[in-house]
């Protein structure tokens, strides 16, 4: 009997600081990926701010965990979905986000982009295809 691999999607809707949700999401993703789960992330609404470049948390007294997103590729987290409309509504573009990659072993370890910009309708389809969606 073969084991069916379940797809886990971690949906991030909140700003990176001011609550623990963003940090907890990232921790759970890393733990799941370390145990070979099929993990992907989605960012929409204020969650898109989690991936922006240049976080400075000195004035708010919270740890800047944003550099940890760069490690996702090392954990085989290859699919990071960002909702286009959420970026546009906040005056952001793909260029405002960290450049996140993973190495493709089947392509001579070529670095490939992890972030996929999707429309609101495509994001709904991504959520529908997941076996389990965790919302943060």
| Order of secondary-structure elements | EHEEHEEEHE
At the first level of CATH, the class is Alpha Beta
Number of strands: 7
Q: CA-to-CA gap between the ends? A: 34 Å
What is the annotated CATH architecture?
Answer: 3-Layer(aba) Sandwich
List the total number of helices: 3
By CATH, the superfamily comes out as DsrEFH-like
Mean pLDDT: 92
Strand content: 15-25%
Q: How many domain regions?
A: 1
Give the strand order of the largest sheet, numbering strands 1, 2, ... along the chain.
Answer: 6-3-2-1-7
Helix content: 10-25%
Per-chain topology:
Blueprint: E1 7-12, H1 21-34, E2 38-43, E3 80-83, H2 84-89, E4 101-104, E5 110-113, E6 115-118, H3 120-129, E7 132-135
Parallel strand pairs: 1-2, 1-7, 2-3, 3-6
Antiparallel strand pairs: 4-5
Overview of this structure, please?
The protein is α/β, with parallel strands linked by helices and 136 residues long. The chain has a single domain, classed as Hypothetical Protein Ychn, Chain: A (3-Layer(aba) Sandwich). The protein is 22% helix and 24% strand. It has helices spanning 21-34, 84-89, 120-129; strands spanning 7-12, 38-43, 80-83, 101-104, 110-113, 115-118, 132-135. A 5-stranded parallel sheet has the order 6-3-2-1-7, with helices on both faces. The relative contact order is 0.23.
Name the features.
136 residues, alpha/beta, Hypothetical Protein Ychn, Chain: A, two-stranded antiparallel ribbon, globular
Short characterization:
The protein is α/β, with parallel strands linked by helices and 136 residues long.
